[in-house]
């Protein structure tokens, strides 16, 4: 019985029956941040606003802010790779929650998470919390040596 309930929770979570919860931008603000993806430079917010057709009714307004890095590379860890010309944004991927969530079913608590969280995320710019390095040839006293260089020093070295 327990395993079938856990399977139902896993199926519900993986098929998209997950409510996207957000947090307010400011404590006094009614606009909620649903997604703040620094890796893909996307922020999605939502808020209730009066309807233009019926002022007594509120509708949900969603704002999507995308910052396109102009000099992004296909491989951000390789400064010699070609410039990126295609940027793909999928709301389902931006809104997915990969952290396990406690779900209560019939008085028992189960942990569930989406099943497609193992795929690597495509980054269009550096995630400042992640350490990026690249190998490049260094010519020193007539001898070429491959040296690993840090591309984001603040996240690679402890204070």
Order of adjacent strands in the largest pleated sheet: 1-2-3-4
| Low-pLDDT segments, ≥5 res | 1-20
Structural class: alpha+beta
Write down the overall mean pLDDT.
75
What does this 3D model show about the protein?
- The chain is an alpha+beta fold and 159 residues long.
- 13% of the residues lie in helices and 33% in strands.
- The protein is built from 3 helices and 8 strands; from the N terminus they run αββββαββββα.
- The protein has helices spanning 2-14, 91-94, 153-156, and strands at residues 23-24, 32-37, 42-50, 58-66, 101-105, 108-112, 133-140, 143-150.
- The strands form 3 sheets. The protein has a 4-stranded antiparallel beta sheet with strand order 1-2-3-4, with no helix packed on it. A two-stranded antiparallel ribbon has the order 5-6. The protein has a two-stranded antiparallel sheet with strand order 7-8.
- Strand 7 and strand 8 form a beta hairpin.
- The longest helix is centred in the N-terminal third of the chain and has 13 residues, at 2-14.
- The radius of gyration is 22 Å and the shape is elongated.
Topology:
Layout: H1 2-14, E1 23-24, E2 32-37, E3 42-50, E4 58-66, H2 91-94, E5 101-105, E6 108-112, E7 133-140, E8 143-150, H3 153-156
Antiparallel strand pairs: 1-2, 2-3, 3-4, 5-6, 7-8
Question: Can you give keywords for this protein?
Answer:
four-stranded antiparallel sheet; 159 residues; two-stranded antiparallel ribbon; disordered N terminus; 3 helices; alpha+beta; 8 strands
What would you say about this model in short?
The chain has 159 residues and is of the alpha+beta class. 13% of the residues lie in helices and 33% in strands.
């Amino acid at each position: 019985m327990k395993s079938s309930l856990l399977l139902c929770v896993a199926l519900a979570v993986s098929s998209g029956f997950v409510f996207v919860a957000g947090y307010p931008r400011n404590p006094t603000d009614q606009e909620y941040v649903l997604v703040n993806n620094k890796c893909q430079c996307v922020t999605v917010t939502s808020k209730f606003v009066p309807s233009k057709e019926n002022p007594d009714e509120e509708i949900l307004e969603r704002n999507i802010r995308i910052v396109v890095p102009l000099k992004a590379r296909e491989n951000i860890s390789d400064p010699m790779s070609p410039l990126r010309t295609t940027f793909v944004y999928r709301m389902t991927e931006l809104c997915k929650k990969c952290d396990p969530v406690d779900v209560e079913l019939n008085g028992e608590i189960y942990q569930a998470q989406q099943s497609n969280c193992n795929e690597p995320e495509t980054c269009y710019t550096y995630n400042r919390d992640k350490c990026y390095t690249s190998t490049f040839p260094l010519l020193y006293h007539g001898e070429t040596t491959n040296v690993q260089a840090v591309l984001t020093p603040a996240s690679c070295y402890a204070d």
